Amino acid sequence: MTALTDDTLPMSPRAMRDEMIVFAVMALLLASVPFSGIYPFFVMQALCFALLACAFNLLIGYGGLLSFGHAMFMGTAGYCSAHALKVWALPPELGILVGIAAAFGLSLITGYISIRRQGIYFSMITLALSQLLYFIYLQAPFTHGEDGIQGIPQGHMFGVLDLSKPTVLYYVVLVGFLAGFLLIYRIINSPFGEVLKSIRENEPRAISLGYRTDQYKFLAFVLSGTLAGFAGALKVFVAQNASLTDVHWSMSGEVVLMTLVGGLGTVFGPVVGAFAIIAMQQYLAGFGQWVTVIQGSIFVICVLTFRRGVVGEVAHYFRRSL
Amino acid sequence: MQALYAQLLVGLINGSFYALLSLGLAVIFGMLNIINFAHGALYMMGAFVAYFLLNLGGINYWWALLFAPIIVGIFGMILERTMLKFLTGLDHLYGLLLTFGIALIVQGVFQNYFGSSGLPYSIPDQLKGGMNLGFMFLPIYRGWVVIFSLVVCLATWFLIEKTRLGANLRAATENPTLVRAFGINVPRMITLTYGLGVGLAALAGVLSAPINQVRPLMGADLIIVVFAVVVIGGMGSIMGSIITGFALGVIEGLTKYFYPEASNTVVFVLMVLVLLVKPTGLTGRAA
After folding, report:
1. Using H for helix, E for strand and C for coil, what is the string for A308-320?
2. For A13-25+40-317, CATH number?
3. Where do transmembrane segments lie in this chain (chain A) (predicted)?
4. Which of A253, A125, A279 has its CA nearest to residue B107?
């Protein structure tokens, strides 16, 4: 197996400092959005997808596993959170927990099944599982089929934060995103993350060193799926609906695209990629199906010319790890 | 009972398409080490080429059966020469991502010009009508699709397993460098193999045009089912792909009769069961 990223610099204090600076700049920029006049709804949406892409990147960039069904975690968490908020009338924080728990359960099951095969088969299995789930949601009564769950109440988080106010909602989503991002950052720099990288680089050698690689991959899958569920639960408050588009394979494809554009296996790449793709969809919304054509072209161009992605290329140029 | 036989026939027809498509995927994977995500889009192109040939060129179904696979096959070979060949030596997943991008482009372009609704393609005169077999009424065209697909599948199996060309091909799959040293043009063989696999997909498209109408997204969901078929059957053996394809089609047909709610999902559920019992797939070796 050839390495996905050829910059496998060990984690040096300098790299850690660089990443912390970039993180601080990113957090400041995002925190100042409500004062800048940028449409906060757009940024909130992008943040949810950025978190989803980061969770996906944890699996592909650090575990070498390409999941082609990551939308199923987002969609499942979305449906369950939406149901909990609307039908059970739970407060927002519990609604999010229900969504995360659902994604956790789903990732336990799908991880147990899909981790049995490697490489290309893993991708096909995750895609097939997400399609299976799509058909189940299409027929299940609680998802309301083609209509989806609409008009979800946003409510008051912890009884005080009024999420129907855009600014309050924005900061709640931002805090959720930053917390998720830091958790992923912590995971990839932990001993567990190092083992994961060694499995990506050379699985037989990791096995010969005594690591039970299947267990590591399984844990990475569950972490990734659960975090993707967190992104899906947050997205419910932003979009105020949960629909079949969130579990469709084309959504899984978009997540792959975001991460590929930003840079597989880079810390900040998925965030950059998510903002780029969501912005493109906003501006090109009037062009109908040409958006699909453009997305396809970006796939082709990325794979053929810059496989490191935007952030990966920049990092490579400056010989830094980002 | 009539309904059961009718669903069995539908199952056999879907099985024909699964077999033709998974066969092409297996052949391509053997030579190029790429899972061709564009297979569904190229299947759709086969149907559209047949439609264009009839409505723009007045060329009938029988010639379309010949020309559509050739035209789409050439398109495939151009894709291979201009893009796919640069992925040699890279991780498998880049092949998947690239062909996924190609699929999005092709499907997007067709959707722009033809929307999402179906275009009609009528059954050729010679195959219209039906036969009463005593226990069921058999529409001739449907019987033709099953038999013709079976013949094409077996011919492909024969070509790869029993001829000299096939022997070269299998040798090049095992060790391309050594085969090149014997003076065989392996890059050309890779291009032709991709053309062959794509041509099989296009042929399936032409066969399905009179049954399922010609739609830009006709291959998009089908390819995911075919992936599940490939996971179940494994890509190690040509005959394995053919048998798995037909068998899963029949099982799907039976499900439509006995428990219609699960007919969309039965192939995926079977995939899960196979993975739990025998992770390498029914015919596959350890990957």
Report:
1. CHHHHHHHHHCCC
2. 1.10.3470
3. 20-42, 49-74, 94-113, 120-137, 168-188, 218-237, 257-280, 287-306
4. A253
ipTM score of the complex?
0.91
Which residues between 257 and 296 in chain A have a beta carbon less than 8 angstroms from any beta carbon of chain B?
260, 288-293, 295-296
Chain B contacts in chain A segment 96-135 (CB below 8 A): 113-114, 116-121, 123-125, 127-129, 131-132, 135
CB proximity A305 to B under 8 Å: no
With left for phi above 0 and alpha for psi between -120 and 50, is residue B183 left, alpha or beta? left
B117: number of Cβ within 10 Å: 8
Q: Tell me how long chain A is.
A: 322
Q: Which of B22, B111, B221, B224 to mutate to test the interface with A (most CBs of A within 10 A)?
A: B224
Measure the CA–CA gap between B265 and B145, rounded to whole angstroms. 24
> Rounded distance, CA B70 to CA B81, Å?
16
Which of B103, B231, B269 lies closest to A121 in CB terms?
A: B231
Q: Cβ B105–A297 below 8 Å, yes or no? A: yes
pLDDT digits (tens, 9 = 90+) for A79-105: 999 999 999 989 999 999 999 999 999
Q: Give the minimum alpha-carbon distance from A52 to chain B in angstroms, rounded to a whole number.
A: 18
Q: Where do the structural domains in chain A lie, given as residue ranges? A: 13-25+40-317
Cα gap A171→A154, rounded to integer Å: 14
Residue A300 and residue B102: Cβ atoms within 8 Å?
yes
Distance between start and end Cα atoms, chain B: 42
CA distance B239 to A56: 36
* A91 contacts A157 by C-beta, under 8 angstroms: yes
Give Cβ neighbours of residue B251 (< 8 Å, ≥ 6 apart): B11, B266, B267, B270
Measured between CB atoms, which of A68, A116, A288 is closest to B275? A116
pLDDT tens digits, one per residue of A129-145: 999 999 999 998 888 88
Measured between CA atoms, the residue of chain A closest to residue B90 is: A2
**Structure pTM?**
0.92
Q: What is the pLDDT of residues A20-42, one digit of tens each?
A: 899 999 999 998 888 888 888 88
